[in-house]
Specification:
Strand content of chain A: 5-15%
CATH topology of the largest domain in chain A: Rossmann fold
Low-confidence stretches of chain A: none
Number of domains of chain A: 2
Oligomer: homodimer
CATH class of the largest domain in chain A: Alpha Beta
CATH superfamily of the largest domain in chain A: NAD(P)-binding Rossmann-like Domain
Structural class of chain A: alpha/beta
Mean pLDDT of chain A: 95
Order of helices and strands of chain A: EHEHEHEHEEEHEHHHH
Shape of chain A: elongated
Strand order of the largest sheet of chain A: 3-2-1-4-5-6-7-8
CATH architecture of the largest domain in chain A: 3-Layer(aba) Sandwich
Helix content of chain A: 40-55%
Largest sheet of chain A: 8 strands, mixed
Radius of gyration of chain A: 22 Å
Chain lengths: 260, 260
């Protein structure tokens, strides 16, 4: 398929390269700033970096993927004009398909790769579930084909369900990453090597994949070990924000006991 | 070495079996309730389940490991009497070595396996750092030997440093596990399969091992995407505790931006 990207951030960066590697013709990359679109287009054999959305429609791709920050999708959709029948899908977990409905003549859809993307880290798309949705069956079939060309895990998920999933993903990924960052900061300040906790972190997520996490909760909170808890709160006196998080997370663990 | 355990919970369960497998003589297991000590002793070829601490001293082990909940260690130490020169170490991350100082004639120490233990899940001790500390060099050497017999990662860490490490571990393990539990609960309530987020969770921790997590933070909080954030808070209206956690974690991510 002939594909164009709107956006050249983390998601576009990885997804465009994966689609090109799967044999699709990545024809164009649009982004507002010049540097990102040029940098990404350079990595795609057939891609032209384009500076206007109007130029994008002239290229007439089969599929346009909108991979811009969630709060910019509506603005892009209002500016975009496409040849009738063009499939236009966004790649967001949080936004409904309906944010694209202002694009006259387009067949709208969603192409959501359920993964966290940073430019510096390669991603194995064979392990990335791709959740698709579309306005009609032709567009759905095309987006499914596109997804299957890069991942064995393709599912049809509605906007409402995807929204719930995205919320769960924020807890499992974004918030977890923040806790790992706090942990690393505490290690650094104690002059301990940052990799000392790696076996513990890996065991934690391995265990959470095998058992419901609430069932295998360990640590001072679930044991109601008030001495250890107050010792930790004392150690956190110089980090008032982390101290408050510690308190809230401890309360939440204690309130969750027995819940599965 | 001839070893006895005080405690038959998660830590004792795994550690005693690993030490027995490494060729040590696990001579006795004490616990207040009969069932756990009998269950564990059954798995150790040479072990006797004992019902009193006095009986334990008669057995005269080289090393007694105290693996009871952190807030019970002091009480055990006050009751324990041992032949002079017996090495007595606890296995706690949070407690200083000094909680054992009431044991007359003992050489005290700490033998802390830095891992999360649940009975249901086997643990590969080759991947468990063991942090040791002791009152004198003979005891330190013995505890180091013991640790090296089950793990290639043995370090000498002071009580004060271990306390900081334990706090970091609570964020990286206990709190992370709780977030994974919340995520699973949200998935279940949306009738989504619990394993759908596994690739995302694994990528999150893999990435956090390669880069400082604050540097690779993704999601609506770090993007200051207020629409998505308020949509998520709205979805969490029925979970006030999770809503508050969402708010706190989002604030903390936003306050941490740029910090490494």
């Amino acid at each position: 398929m002939k594909i164009a990207f709107i956006g050249a951030g983390n998601v576009a960066w990885h997804l465009a390269q994966a689609l090109a590697a799967a044999g699709h013709k990545l024809a164009a990359v649009y982004s507002r700033s010049a540097a990102p679109r040029e940098e990404l287009a350079k990595l795609l054999p057939a891609a032209k970096p384009v500076a206007s959305l109007a130029e994008l429609s002239v290229i007439a791709p089969d599929v346009i993927l909108i991979a811009v920050p969630d709060d910019a999708i509506t603005a892009v959709a209002q500016l975009l004009q496409v040849p009738s029948g063009t499939i236009v899908a966004h790649t967001s977990g949080s936004q409904p398909m309906s944010v694209l409905e202002s694009i006259a003549g387009a067949c709208t859809g969603v192409f959501y790769p359920l993964q966290t993307f940073s430019k510096a880290k390669t991603v194995d798309f064979k392990k990335v579930p791709v959740l698709v949705e579309a306005q009609d069956s032709r567009a759905l079939q095309k987006l499914e084909q596109l997804a299957q060309s890069i991942s064995p895990q393709v599912q049809h998920v509605s906007s409402e369900t995807r929204r719930q999933l995205h919320l769960a993903a924020v807890f499992a990924c974004n918030f977890t990453n923040h806790l790992l960052g706090i942990s690393r900061e505490l290690l650094q300040n104690a002059h301990l090597p940052p990799d000392l906790l790696q076996p513990l972190i890996h065991e934690t997520v391995d265990k959470a994949a095998l058992f419901p996490p609430f069932d295998v909760q360990t640590g001072p909170a679930v044991r109601h070990d008030e001495n250890v808890i107050s010792g930790h709160l004392h150690l956190l006196a110089q980090y008032p924000r982390y101290q408050e998080l510690y308190r809230q997370l401890t309360d939440s663990i204690q309130a969750t006991k027995g819940k599965v």
